[in-house]
Fold this protein.
Amino acid sequence: MRPEIFNQERRSRSIKLIILLGVLVLFGLVISMNTGRYSMPPSEVLQTLFGQGSKKQNIVLFDMRLPRIIISVLIGAGLAISGAVLQGISRNGLSDPGILGINSGAGLAVLLFVSFYPTTSVAPPFLMPFLALIGAGLTAVIIYVLSYKKNDGISPTRLLLTGIAVGAGMSAISIILTLQLNPSNFEFVVTWQMGSLWGSNWKFVGALLPWIVILLPYVYWKSRVMNILSTNEQIAGSLGLSINRERLVLMAAAVGLAASSVATGGSIGFVGLLGPHIARRMVGPQHQYMLPITAMVGALLVLAGDTIGRSIMEYTEVPAGVVISLLGGPYFIYLLMRSKV
Amino acid sequence: MARLHLRTNEAPIRTRPLMATFIIFIGIFAILFGIAASIVTGVANISFSTVWNSVFAYDSNNEHHVIIQSLRMPRALAGALVGAAFAVSGAIMQGMTRNPIADTGLLGINAGAGFVLVLVFAFIPSMPFEYIILFSFIGAGLGAGLVYGIAYFARGGLTPLRLVLAGAVVGSLVTGVSQALSLLFQINYDLAFWSAGGISTAEWFQVSVMMPWIIVGLIAAMVLSRSITILSLGEEVAAGLGQRTKLIKGIGAVVVMILTGASVSTVGGVGFIGLIVPHIVRFLVGVDYRWIIPCSAVLGGVLVICADIGAKIIAMPYETPLGSIIAVLGVPFFLYLARKERREL
């Protein structure tokens, strides 16, 4: 055990970092509120925020940009924490809801809905997270069962390979379904799959918020359990922890976070991988310090990805998911080259 | 076989030349039968006798004859060629790297070729196919180079898991760029259909351009096969036997590039053929690549022709993407290999 003094140092360091990241997120919010096809300088944004804006400014800010910004912050935090939990319980630094195929399971469920109810091109927002949850949950169960072996349990290697395989299968089925859609649904699904934050109005904020508000604190409350789980199974067992139950519950939380985020934002990869890694580099592996930072890094990533995607090209938006994978891919490669896998 | 009485630590080399000859014969018949079956199936109902007549008594006023000659024949032939090419690519890679889960799709080689093709679609849409195929070779080489480079320079070297992860990430990176480009140039639908894989668009002129490349690639693979068998015993053994392993690996890589590039430029990113076929063949005929490579070529052709018939009839009159059909077969196989993992995996 580390002496208490190190923990105090760590705590004050992580508090400082949280404040710093908080400022960065606020800064990002302001920049994001200013960017878009309709340009609004900071002074006008402030005026509008305090109720002094014109009708057009009000619509742009309150009905279009603000919900989208809030959604990107929530999704970022949700995906990053989901990744942190998966990495913790599988003791594998390369786990992430995208790589494990959970995102594609959620996506397939949503796609099935769109295929069979083709008239409702925008499905009811409260239904989408549940559908995605069912898809993601089933996928997680399939991956878990397929990578489980008697005597050997779950090996991290097998888990990753199984995740990649199941993800490939899910996307094969998705492609079959996608190509049979009518053109307008096709456009919707394709941009959705790229991670476009399509559901950007207040209803979607309302649908997403409960998941994040309940599950993030729950995971944080479990940080000590995760500290033990991520170190050593034998220690965990001898400390009287029922490993399998804890692991299962935490996995369910991770799936819930990933699914609700994917349902609203489309499949955004790499956030679940990058968030926890960056946080661990800043404050070390203890979850009580690392989790809040993970959430903020994730929020910052998606916010930045969406803002960049909205402003990079003049005529069209690049989905946040594409921007993030262009940033995240190289980092993953870097991690892959350093890790021992 | 007499000269190849090498022994690895445990087992002597098992080969079943009789079985292999049998597979090649049956396989060639299956391909011919499959091509005929593929020509007969489709939205327009056509009988065998019409097919026969279209070959030996071609009538350009007969609509069915035209369909057969200009659409179905090149499609069936392209299927056979592409199947052989993907399967042999997989066999070469599995043999050279001793990696049981090598496949052009999993290792990002298809993605690399596809990416370069997207660049071509976007920037030089009028480029003739003769040149497109050359770009596809370059793309396949870039994809392979990137994935192997990442895994090679990683701490702990080329483990199969690391190769697959590198392949997955290179794939998703490349897809990200392709998607951004497709949004910008509005080639979304083309891209989706392309990445799903399908032979429905193959025409004679495409077949005539890609066929020589694939045939050259297959012959080169046969010439290399003996060296690949030796390499598959391990690099030290091969070097001890006086083999110039670097040279052989270099030539092998070029052959994979040509076979994959030619196939991907014709049918898009179809994965898992190179994973499934060589495993089945090894199980049937043993570990001598002089038999594995021709048998893989034949069975790969059979697999793609059958899958393509499936692509036509599953959701008639719509085409089901070939890549998806083969993935649905390939994923369980991949899962099986992942479960069977031994120490090296």
About this structure: Strands of chain A lie at 148-149, 153-154. The radius of gyration of chain A is 20 Å. Residues 126 and 207 of chain A are 5 Å apart (CA to CA). The longest strand of chain A covers residues 148-149.
